[in-house]
Amino acid sequence: MAEGMQAPGHGALEGAAPAGTSPQARARYGEDEHGWLMEQAGLLRAGRLEEVDRASLAEFLTDMAAAHRHAFQSAMTVLLHHMLKVLVQPERMTRSWLLTIRVQQQHARFLMKENPGMRQYLPDLYADAYADARGNASAETGIALTRFPVDNPWTLDDALAFVPPEPPLRGRRAARPG
Question: What is the pTM of this model?
Answer without folding.
Answer: 0.78
